[in-house]
Design brief:
8 helices; Glutaredoxin; alpha/beta
């Protein structure tokens, strides 16, 4: 049974738009993963909405080398790869359903060449980052404020190869939520020890990163 009905499919297809570049959704799954089947349906149905989107299914039992290549330690997981084969460090851990479908489609648009412009001074600050940065944005599907920080984290990763950014669905990975004391979402954790809560502007991300 399809996850998206005809009406939702039409809306999402219009939201994706006319992608000028191809991209690949690298999807990762393994046995005993409660949400992997639904997440595979999710990415496959969205990929079918545009000819420039393809999906590569990586099963741990058959594609262990892909897990290692993309540094995937938990499932379900999604990575976005542009048509030139570049992995931009954009990750989704858990199904990006509910409100998070907005951040998922936004990443498709960005990697597919439909980037949303930023002010020149902000881009200059992003490009100047020369240290390794890992952004984790903890979300839940029912949180309307969560897609914004996810989109910003992925935008930073897209613009600077030193930056990796994850969406982490908090209820799918309770061990991570406990580790980082996630009591409200969105919660943003940068390089393990720097954190803030709530939907914040990109300047907040940059202030924290520049202070590392």
């Amino acid at each position: 049974m399809a996850l998206f009905d005809e009406k939702i499919t039409k809306q999402l297809t219009e939201f994706i738009g006319d992608l000028p570049q191809k991209l690949t959704i690298e999807y990762f799954k393994q046995k005993d993963c409660a949400s992997c089947e639904d997440t595979q349906k999710f990415v496959s149905e969205i990929a079918a909405m545009h000819p420039n989107i393809s999906v590569n299914i990586n099963d741990l039992d058959e594609s262990a080398e892909a897990f290692q290549k993309f540094n995937i330690e938990r499932t379900p997981a999604i990575a976005m790869v542009s048509e030139d084969g570049v992995d931009h460090g954009i990750r989704f851990f858990g199904i990006p359903a509910g409100y998070e479908i907005n951040s998922f489609v936004a990443s498709i648009r960005e990697v597919g060449g439909m980037d949303e412009p930023l002010p020149d001074d902000i881009i200059k600050r992003i490009k100047a980052i020369d240290k390794d940065v890992h952004i984790q944005v903890f979300v839940t599907p029912t949180c309307p404020y969560c897609p914004g920080p996810v989109i910003l984290g992925h935008k930073l990763a897209l613009l600077n190869s030193h930056i990796k950014a994850d969406m982490v669905e908090a209820t799918t990975f309770p061990e991570l939520s406990q580790k980082y004391a996630v009591r409200g979402v969105p919660k943003i954790v940068i390089n393990e020890t720097n954190e803030f809560v709530g939907s914040q502007p990109i300047t907040k991300f940059l202030e924290v990163i520049e202070g590392l």
